[in-house]
Automatic annotation (TrEMBL):
This is Uncharacterized protein. The lineage of its organism: Eukaryota, Fungi, Dikarya, Ascomycota, Saccharomycotina. It comes from Scheffersomyces stipitis (strain ATCC 58785 / CBS 6054 / NBRC 10063 / NRRL Y-11545) (Yeast). It holds the Pfam family SLM4. One of its GO terms (cellular component) is Ragulator complex. GO terms for biological process: signal transduction. InterPro entries: Slm4.
């Protein structure tokens, strides 16, 4: 199981800036609100932030305060759950969603099932593709008590596809280390 410092370090990888085409590959990209997310959080199965990592240099460029991001985390969680309930009769549910929260502020939230998946059960995990981005989708039968959520906040100029790729990377890294983290 991962320690909280390691979880924070893993989450902070999702806040790295994407390089601009004009920047040299040998230099670190200049962090701006257009090329780096604001914040990333790991949420409990009830949507409560467990760990949050802030990109302070980008937050300083905005009027958004960390307390507002906690409220937006809960709003994002509730929106994802609501969308999943609306799709409950579909054979496969999308385990992530992009939500426009406020003028220019977006979040992408993804559920992370930390329970062992039986690869022999074809309903456990299905690989799909949406807008050219590979995604994981889960069957309607997954237990919400075994899920944690990752939410990434970013401003509109930041590309949705890059935000999704960042969450996919974090999801893959956290999946193995968080087994046993939630109550069994």
């Amino acid at each position: 199981m991962l320690q909280s410092k390691k979880i924070s370090r893993l989450l902070s990888q999702g806040l790295t800036a994407i390089p601009d085409d004009s920047e040299s590959s040998s230099t670190s990209p200049i962090v701006t609100r257009a090329n780096a997310p604001l914040s990333i959080s790991l949420l409990s199965h009830e949507g409560i932030p467990l760990t949050t990592v802030l990109n302070k240099s980008v937050l300083q460029e905005t009027s958004i305060v960390p307390d507002n991001l906690r409220v937006y985390s809960l709003q994002s969680y509730k929106t994802l759950i609501q969308h999943q309930h609306q799709q409950a009769e579909k054979p496969v549910l999308k385990n992530w969603d992009i939500i426009e929260l406020d003028a220019g502020l977006k979040s992408i939230i993804m559920s992370l099932n930390v329970e062992e998946n039986d690869s022999s059960n074809p309903e456990s995990v299905v690989v799909g593709e949406e807008a050219g981005v590979e995604t994981l989708v889960e069957s309607a039968g997954s237990s919400q008590d075994n899920e944690l959520y990752i939410v990434l906040f970013y401003l509109k100029p930041f590309p949705d596809a890059i935000a999704k790729l960042k969450l996919d990377h974090i999801d893959a890294a956290l999946h193995e280390g968080l087994k046993g983290y939630v109550r069994g």
